[in-house]
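Whiteboard transcription, Tuesday session. T.W. wrote the structure tokens on the left side:
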């Protein structure tokens, strides 16, 4: 059994427990449930950088990344940097996140928020809406086509945008459908945690152009972003590159500035003009 299998088994059990304690009606009656969502798609299409920055404390592959800063500090820094959206990891056992992180992010910024989670049940989509998300993630490798259809349609009925994550052409062909908004190619195998940008390069022309295309994981240089922009990617989900620094917001700001102006150079571990 690989790590992804373990995560999904744990997640299904976690959802069952939550459903036994917090009824759907409580989620639907939350203060944020009726809020108008902010479009991540519009931001990505209007942006020259396409950066979606991630709040991420740890991962199974990297253990601890950064526990030093509050959610508020991180997301406000990202907003000031000019990101298109912010991804908030809410898995607790493997990534050190929580729904409270999403709630605090929503209270702190006015940019689109993506709930980064292993979604296997409509209940988690209700949670996303109730805690302030604007978009959700669905992972093709852990869901059937019917599950992707039902979950994505349910999300859209709540005005949430849907990012479908794929790793290869087989997953894409299984999952592609009108109820999706964004197709994300994960450069990290969730089974081995190996990373290669070649995955995004190979998948670029296989994704229909009506979907916003984003590349996820393993992106650490502006050169990589520019290369991927040239083959059709409009968004780039970056977490560890920013979170492992002493100031994730400043790191995101300098990354975006360098994208816009090639005169920025790396010196002594810092971008300088």
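and on the right, the sequence the group agreed on:
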């Amino acid at each position: 059994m690989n790590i992804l299998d373990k995560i999904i088994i744990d997640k299904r059990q976690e959802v069952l427990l939550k459903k036994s304690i917090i009824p759907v009606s409580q989620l639907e009656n939350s203060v944020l449930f009726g809020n108008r969502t902010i479009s991540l798609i519009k931001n990505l299409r209007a942006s020259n950088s396409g950066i979606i920055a991630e709040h991420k404390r740890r991962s199974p592959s990297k253990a601890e990344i950064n526990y030093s800063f509050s959610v508020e500090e991180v997301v406000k820094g990202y907003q000031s940097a000019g990101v298109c959206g912010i991804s908030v990891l809410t898995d607790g056992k493997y990534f050190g996140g929580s729904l409270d992180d999403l709630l605090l992010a929503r209270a702190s910024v006015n940019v689109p928020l993506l709930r980064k989670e292993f979604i296997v049940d409509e209940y988690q989509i209700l949670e996303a809406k109730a805690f302030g998300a604007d978009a959700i993630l669905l992972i093709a490798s852990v869901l059937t086509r019917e599950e992707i259809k039902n979950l994505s349609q349910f999300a859209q009925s709540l005005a949430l945008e849907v990012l479908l994550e794929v790793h290869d052409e087989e997953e894409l062909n299984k999952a592609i459908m009108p109820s999706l908004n964004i197709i994300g190619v994960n450069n990290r195998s969730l089974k081995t945690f190996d990373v290669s940008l070649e995955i995004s390069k190979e998948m670029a022309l296989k994704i229909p152009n009506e979907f916003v295309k984003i590349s996820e994981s393993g992106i650490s240089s502006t050169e990589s972003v520019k290369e991927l922009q040239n083959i059709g990617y409009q968004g780039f989900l970056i977490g560890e590159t920013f979170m492992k620094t002493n100031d994730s917001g400043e790191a995101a700001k300098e990354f975006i500035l360098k994208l816009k102006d090639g005169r920025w150079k790396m010196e002594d571990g810092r971008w300088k003009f």
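Someone added at the bottom: The chain has a mean pLDDT of 92.
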